[in-house]
Amino acid sequence: MNKILIGFLLTLPGILLIVIAVSFGWFLFPLIIHDKIVENVRLIAGSETWGKWKEAPIPIYLNFYIHHVTNPDEVEHGLKPKFLEKGPYAYRQKRVKVDIKQEDGLNTVKYREVKTYFFDKKISGNNSEDDLVNVPNIPFVGVVHAVQKMLPIDFVVGLVGNVVLQHETLMRRNVSVGELLFTGFDVTKYTRSLLARRLPKEFKGGRFGLYKGKNGTESPEWEVYTGYDSSEKFGRVKTWDSKSDLLFWRRFSECDKIKGTDGSVFQPFLTKQSQIEAFSPDVCRSITLIFENETEYKGVPGYRFTTPAWVFADPRNRPENQCFCLEDDIEKCPYAGVLPLESCMNAPVYSSSPYFLGADVRYLVESGLDSPNREKHRTFIDIEPTTGLILRAHKRLQISLEVKQHRKVKAFQNMQSDRMLFPLIWADENAALDDALVEDLKGKLLTPLQIVGIAKWALLILGIILFLVGLCVFAVKYILATDLSGISEKLKDMRASSITSLK
């Protein structure tokens, strides 16, 4: 009997190891990790996340590519432009949160962000801010467009285009890249004219540049959820510039709502079914991204999220996108892949993917640009799904200028069509974890998960082996301990009976 008991007891360690492996490896440890991540993924002063959020620790670059026009004279005589891409002109971007105020208990935080740009000679290679480019005369086109829209009278438009702004041309030649982007080129002809009071803030100081006034200045105020009460709200924008609606698109529509985060953080515990959203002031709207495929960055597995085609689908085919068009006649709305920004930029500019990737083919044909390269021109974000940490990201955006023909303005009389989208520049805002941050992520998350993953299977297998060994010992001991004498007597009787019957 003691031998049977010993065999039975041998199964107990196996059962215990199986219980430990299942309960700890599949239930308890994941729960501990979940709670630890929820605790850390909060915008609370003093937390680890707070410091990294306050001042971005990863290198961020904004690389510009200019659509340089090689035949400006021919363009002004009605021929199609010929483009030469110049770039990259790379700028290291430093982001710092300022005027931080913790409000609504600990549920929200308000702040402004200062972005400072530093030209990076190494990444820019042989390209310099002193390089000269030919581009459309953006201030001239914008002012004529504004006058046409405000006072659609041919005489008035002609007076402004031919007299007030005489000698201005459709193309602007030999503009330095630095002036085009940040320092601005001279527009005192505009600021000293009778148009001065009507000019937008971009003309301030008598200089005009695409990014003038955005280097080292504070952004409008953001208010975001800290994730204190719910990790699902982590980083989500509550208000921007004191507004919960943008007032750029059709009032009270879904298009006009601010959705998602500011694009620098995302909620943890993402799945392949998750849709992430980010509000981007650069395009004056929120963008949705969906899971595309699994990926890996420096040994860290991640999920790649990209913008689906329906986000910028033709409003004629997708009613949900009609609120992004402010035209009364839907036939005047842009086609797929192009978004009008005049309502928030005060200029006839449009955003799209570089080289009109994914847009209606007519834009590419009309512009004369080369065909896009999907890998080089698309937007994507690689995210570690458990923490929501961005591993690598590329936000790529092209800005084009709408140029319309005006019968009474000499500079626009020779245009080849009534209107066209004239590509200006495209930019690649990109960021990636450096080696130190990757190792930090591995040490705090991936390595413990791997250790637990190995340990739980090892314990489970060992437990099963011990259980089976104990079970075998139990069975053998049971058999050996069983009284076989009765069976032997029965076998003898059966044998005797068989012999008797044969006789």
Structure report:
The relative contact order is 0.15. It contains 13 helices and 18 strands. Strands 1, 2, 3, 8, 9, 10, 11, 12, 13, 14, 15, 16, 17 and 18 form a 14-stranded antiparallel β-sheet that branches. The protein is 34% helix and 27% strand. By secondary structure, the protein is of the alpha+beta class. The longest helix is centred in the C-terminal third of the chain and has 47 residues. It starts with a helix and ends with a helix. It folds into two domains: 92 residues; 375 residues, no CATH class. A hairpin with a 4-residue loop joins strand 11 and strand 12.
Shape field = elongated
Oligomer: single chain
Q: Kindly state the mean pLDDT as a whole number?
A: 85
Q: How many discrete domains?
A: 2
Provide key terms for this protein.
503 residues, alpha+beta, 2 domains, 14-stranded antiparallel beta sheet, two-stranded antiparallel ribbon, 18 strands, 27% strand, elongated
Short description:
The chain has 13 helices and 18 strands. With 503 residues, it is α+β, with helices and mostly antiparallel strands.
